Fold this sequence. Notes:
This protein is of the alpha+beta class. It is built from two helices and 15 strands. It has three domains: 30-196, Immunoglobulin-like, CATH 2.60.40.1730; 224-256; 264-303, no CATH class.
Amino acid sequence: MLKCLILSTLFTLVLLGSVSPARAEEPPKISMMDVSVWPEYDQPGVLVQYQGNVAGKADKTSPVELYFFVPKGAGVCAACAVQANGNHTSETWKESEAEGGLTKITFNVSEPQFHVEYYYNPLPTATDKKFSFAYTAALPADQVQVDIQHPLKATNFALTPDTPDLHKDNDGFTYHSYTFKQVAAGQKLATDVAYTKTDPKPSVSGNPPATTTNAASTASDGGINPNQIIVLATFVVMGGIIAYFVWERKNRGAQPEYVRAEWHDAAPRGDGLATGGYCTQCGNALQAGDRFCARCGHPAAEI
């Protein structure tokens, strides 16, 4: 009896050990990512861009859900994939509130490369500018590089912590770079930026950013704006009403006007006696020998 109990227990343990628990789906990982921070680039605020690659994503058949944090109140302009030819795809995204004064941006990509872009304005109006930038990682990454752009016409530019990694582009901008390895989800990469700029104009001229609202409440790119439908329908109705009145007025003017002839007693001819009788059409007095009524032209032969 004891032997059977021991064998049953061992069999149960082996059976339980052979059934592995279901593994929770692991979040995607970023292989390499650039975080570009451009204060007063084409607007008075700060333009921030995330661009990188999803680790291990080679095929384009299965979409991957990505999510990133942006400052609360930031105007998100894009959250999409980047095709091999450099074109950005047209994606929608969802915005949800996150801890720490952040907003979580969630979207799907079918390409290995992604792009996120937003504007926010932490800058004071004084000529001495100072703000703190922090990238909070929502997803783990093998490498994250943060590039801070030195605004044109800005002096006394300083970063805390400082970085010796500097490079320039063909447009004359200087970039200060930080490189971080094996960034964990939830890790914060922060730097303080300070400079003096007396010219209120941005580095380059640009238009106000076309901020797109939460995709859960608006259509995707190329979608139909309900306000446009209302305006268009109003113009169509008004045009139809105007066309109807023009048509009705035109047709009414083309119709002959029927004037009702006033009835007068037939004026007697000669001595006033109707020697030929009276017209059966209008009652005019006829004289003997009249073949037609002198008033209405009705044949007198029918009298």
